[in-house]
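Possible regression after last week's pipeline update?

I re-ran a chain I had predicted before the update to compare outputs. Posting the input and the new output here so someone can diff against the archived version. Not blocking, just want to make sure nothing changed silently.
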Amino acid sequence: MLSKQIARGQWGVQSSNSGRSEWKSPYKKIRRANLRPSGPWPSLSALKHAAVIAVLFSLPIPWHEIAGHGLVGVLCGGRITRFELFGWQLFPKIKWAGTSEGLGVCDHTGIVSQWGVHLTDLAGSMSTFVVAVIAAYLLWRYRPRGVKFTALICLTVWALDLLTFTLPSFGLRRGIWIGTHYSEPYTAAVALGIPGPLFQVFVLAGFSAVVLLVALALAPSSKHVPRKHPNG
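New output (post-update):
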């Protein structure tokens, strides 16, 4: 009959079975423990989420100006003459310009039609709204977790750009109490022939749809709810 002897020492565990011995070092557990953050230091996962939030919350204005006004203005035949972000003029030359005209500016010249000018004005807030709608749908449809979830939640917040920029058409300021009285998307939509009240309804309904999709994505999924036995 085979005998098994286990000798426990100060630095590890030695076991013998049929003449074979193995030495189990406690340093493996120590090394694994050292990989886990302790004390006030944030975990790597938390830093990833924080980085995603910081980046995506700073991108709506650049996206509004570049993918919205900039791209559509060029497609309508215009040429960018001035581009500013967060107070810095980046084109035609780099310099501090201040924020008296807002946090983002994209001026064009050469757009041949007034229709193109108004479409360029409308494209700024609409570009961020489209991103928010797509993000809300993906969040509801696939219900991702981790960093993907954080990223999509941040992108749905971009819907506030169109909503807040439409508030002046209701007699409010863009920030309700502070901000501009000028509603760029509303003015552009009306100039394009869209009735003002219809555009306001579209904005409110669109923002509500984004909120609804996010709420449905955050709600518990029915497939995870345990079913009771009929005889239970």
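Follow-up from reviewer: compared with the archived run. Confidence is low (pLDDT under 50) at residues 1-13, 30-35. Marking as no regression found.
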